[in-house]
Design a protein that fits this description.
Number of strands: 6
Oligomer: single chain
Distance between the termini: 134 Å
Number of helices: 3
Structural class: alpha+beta
Radius of gyration: 40 Å
Number of domains: 2
């Protein structure tokens, strides 16, 4: 039996004593890893909060802009109602005056918001105009000869291009 014990003891792995600096280095690296993980988790939480705050701020800004525009359109709606009342009384002069008042109010309000008409004088500009027809005229080829629908821009951005008729040059005489 004593031989069996001896072989069992020999088969068991012998634990080596830790090197004095290894345990400290491992503990130091583990601590550093935990600090980085904690910092990363905090940064992630801060970024998520920032993203949510920015989205909320954008929604509030859009809602305020929408509210302001609607608030400014209410007087135009009032003017339109007055024009409709005048139409009910069949007073053509008052009706025309009412419609002009509504048009002027709406145009002024939109101009204050930065809306402007697209310039259609001179040469055709494909960036701000849409050519629906081309026809012969005494005007120089490529000139706008008729505006079928006004175009509008808001700041530098074209909201709707002007729809125009463009000159194809002088008509040829079939003589």
């Amino acid at each position: 039996m004593s031989e069996n014990r001896q072989t069992e003891e020999q088969q068991q792995p012998v634990e080596e004593a830790p090197v004095p600096g290894e345990a400290d280095a491992l503990a130091s690296l583990t601590k550093e890893r935990d600090e980085y993980l904690d910092a990363l988790q905090r940064l992630k939480a801060e970024f998520d909060n920032y993203r949510k705050r920015v989205a909320r701020d954008q929604q509030e800004l859009a809602a305020r802009a929408h509210e302001r525009l609607v608030k400014e359109l209410v007087p135009v709606l009032d003017d339109l109602e007055r024009a409709l009342e005048a139409a009910g009384q069949h007073e053509e002069a008052k009706l025309e005056e009412g419609v002009r008042l509504v048009h002027r109010s709406l145009a002024e309000l939109l101009a204050r918001e930065g809306l402007s008409e697209v310039d259609t004088t001179g040469k055709f500009d494909p960036h701000t105009q849409e050519a629906l027809l081309s026809q012969p005229s005494d005007e120089e080829e490529g000139s706008v000869i008729q505006v079928l629908q006004k175009g509008y821009s808001l700041g530098e951005r074209v909201l709707r291009p002007a729809r125009v008729v463009v000159s194809s040059g002088r008509p040829e005489n079939d003589g």
